[in-house]
Amino acid sequence: MNNKQVRLSLLSHAGGAGKTTLAVNIGYELAQRGYSTLIIDLDCNCSLIEFCGVAPTPENIELVFNPKFNGNYPTQAIFGTDKLQIIPGSTQMSEVMNSLVGKKRREYYLQKLISTFPLVHDFVIFDCRAGLDLLSDNAIAASTHLLIPLNMGVKIMTGGQLITSILETIADLELNPAPEIMGIVPNKTGKAAYHRQFLQELPEICDALQVKLYQDIPLWQHLENSGVEARPLKQARPGDKICQNFSLLADDLERARNGQ
Ligand SMILES: Nc1ncnc2c1ncn2[C@@H]1O[C@H](COP(=O)(O)OP(=O)(O)OP(=O)(O)O)[C@@H](O)[C@H]1O
Ligand SMILES: [Mg+2]
Predict the structure, then answer these.
(1) How many domains, the chain?
(2) DSSP assignment of 222-259, as one string?
(3) What is the CATH number of the domain that holds 232?
(4) Pocket test residue of 11, 13, 20 for ligand 1, highest count of atoms within 8 A of CB
(5) pTM of the full structure
């Protein structure tokens, strides 16, 4: 067995696509399977702590990007299990990234940090800010895998354009090995005719982009409620059928970790 650390970036073109929702629910599923999993909030909206019921704290990602960082990651266990931890986000992340702008190899800052101070976890999930910027470049450069939730409220071509931009970023950064694009997760699908049409067109679009298309996640009130209650869906409603969507994603991540 290979057992390499899998580091996953959640990327989306638009806000509200479901990155944090996926991070929390996939993270919980992996932790339930016994894997130590760390979710790192790279978004200055800091919404991860809200999904986890954690109070804002100065012990957050800003410390990691501090030039004096000593490898003591500010992790916190969540949902009553040590297997699942987070590093909370910081509202000051834009300023932190601005301080990198003049630096050489600024896109590789996070990658370098992690290689200097290795994380002990089996899985690391980067909950990114919407769009592509210096911070998402850092996340991409530090990742082994990328996953793209696609809000069905946004035209599908936007998702296609995002993948094209990600592929360009990977090429520009000359990442070797390049992170693997796990696939697209259509999210918040409903009964509207244009949603059905997008869903019908998606397989062909994903084929052309050579990325996997995951089972869509419908607009699901129980999922939204679980976020508001600061619980993963599986903890709030263990038998909920949407837990299966997260389980299938965790299966692929588990396979990636085991080198299959
Ligand atoms: N399938 C779904 N059904 C219902 N509500 C959902 C679903 N997916 C996500 N949500 C809700 O939509 C909102 C946005 O989701 P989330 O915060 O995960 O997106 P995001 O991509 O992280 O957004 P941002 O870029 O703003 O951080 C949240 O309130 C979440 O609970
Ligand atoms: Mg988010």
Answers:
(1) 1
(2) HHHHHHHTTS-HHHH-TT-TTHHHHHHHHHHHHHHHTT
(3) 3.40.50.300
(4) 20
(5) 0.97
